[in-house]
Task: structure prediction
Amino acid sequence: MYLAQLNIAKAKYPLDSPQLKEFIDNLAPVNKIAEESEGFIWRLQDESGDATNIQAFSDPSMIINMSTWASTDALKKFMFRTHHRDFLRRKSQWFENIPQDSYVLWWIPQDSTPTIEEGIERLNYLRENADSPFAFTFKSNFSAAEAIDHKITP
Result:
């Protein structure tokens, strides 16, 4: 099984604003690092090469990111041991604080690709039910075997 992740962020400024220029200008390099990372499988993108123009919510300032990875360790290594880490540290400069969970992890069969709707469903489930094998965070880090064993569905 592969690990799927969805994360959302609410931009403080319009995506084409000077305040978000540095973030936007670094999307392609950071996405390239992800794609070249060990354990990377897939990421959501549109014809521009990123997902910032994909509107999954009625609020146009909400952006979405989804990807799949061979393991939680592979995702963590990309997030916390590459240039991506520098942007995580500056997240509050560009994005509003979301008081609820803003990311979710779940396991998917290797021959599938998660949908935006599935990711939002998992995020909402996490927010309503806390970490479980169906939808979890790095705090719980459920294994693929636990997801299969529990056969959790909303």
Notes: Helices lie at 21-25, 27-36, 72-81, 84-89, 91-94, 116-129, 144-150. The domain at 2-150 is CATH 3.30.70.100 (Alpha-Beta Plaits). The chain has seven helices and four strands.
